[in-house]
Amino acid sequence: MAEDKVELALMNKMGQHEVREPNLFERLFQPCVAELVGTAFFVFIGCVSVIENVADAGRLQPALAHGLAAAVLIACMAEISGSHFNPSFTIAVYICGGMELKMVVPYLISQLTGGLLGAVMANGMTSNEKYAQAQGAAFTVLQADDHVLKPLFGEIAMTCLVTMVVLLGAVNAKSKSPLVPFLVGCTVIINVLVGGDVSGTCLNPARALGPAVLTNYWTHHWVYWVGPITGGLIAAALVRILLGDNNTRLLMK
């Protein structure tokens, strides 16, 4: 009888632990730290993969590095912050009801800070000559003003695609999938392979900002803000209006 009481007490204690509400640190501070750390390592891996890219690898090395880094980091941080690591994703997730308004600005600040930190980490790992030659892995593929519209469209379309994968796989209840890290990573790889020579396949203002600040390289930098944010907004609109479940969709309920 005494053993049964002890066992029952232990089960009750375990049950209480499982249903415990997150404290203030877990609700507010920890998610921002996860976004900062995750974005920093994503940008770090991405920058180094471009700076140290061997001549024969072409787009394959950056594509695999960016995609695999995204998959690993998303899988690790998903239960802490949702693993956005991208201002475009955060804005789209908020629009689709996946996060509270009070967390949007802290997330954006954390991601941009993480992007700067990741660029600094890449600078610390690579030689000064290679870092300068690659402009810190800033996006140097855009040079002429008369060709900027096609890369801008590419950034919009590719960001729209990967944002839809995030929204449908992680936010929309009807289509949620535990394979989101794999799906997002594969989508990043596909996009880099397809659009690497067109726009550099940034898809993320935080990925573009850090290298630009460190090397003072701002040529057509606006493309890597307008393109990804516009693509994210289009994806959010598609989910909210057409693709979302009954709770997410605003029209035709």
Automatic annotation (TrEMBL):
The lineage of its organism: Eukaryota, Metazoa, Chordata, Craniata, Vertebrata. This is Aquaporin-4. It is a multi-pass membrane protein. It comes from Sinocyclocheilus grahami (Dianchi golden-line fish). Homotetramer. The tetramers can form oligomeric arrays in membranes. The size of the oligomers differs between tissues and is smaller in skeletal muscle than in brain. Interaction between AQP4 oligomeric arrays in close-by cells can contribute to cell-cell adhesion. Part of a complex containing MLC1, TRPV4, HEPACAM and ATP1B1. It is found in: Basolateral cell membrane; Cell membrane, Sarcolemma; Cell projection; Endosome membrane. GO terms for cellular component: basolateral plasma membrane; cell projection; endosome membrane; sarcolemma. SUPFAM superfamilies: Aquaporin-like. Belongs to the MIP/aquaporin (TC 1.A.8) family. The gene is LOC107562303. InterPro entries: Aquaporin-like, Aquaporin_8, Aquaporin_transptr, MIP, MIP_CS. The chain crosses the membrane at residues 28-51, 63-80, 152-171, 178-196, 222-243. The keyword Iron does not apply.
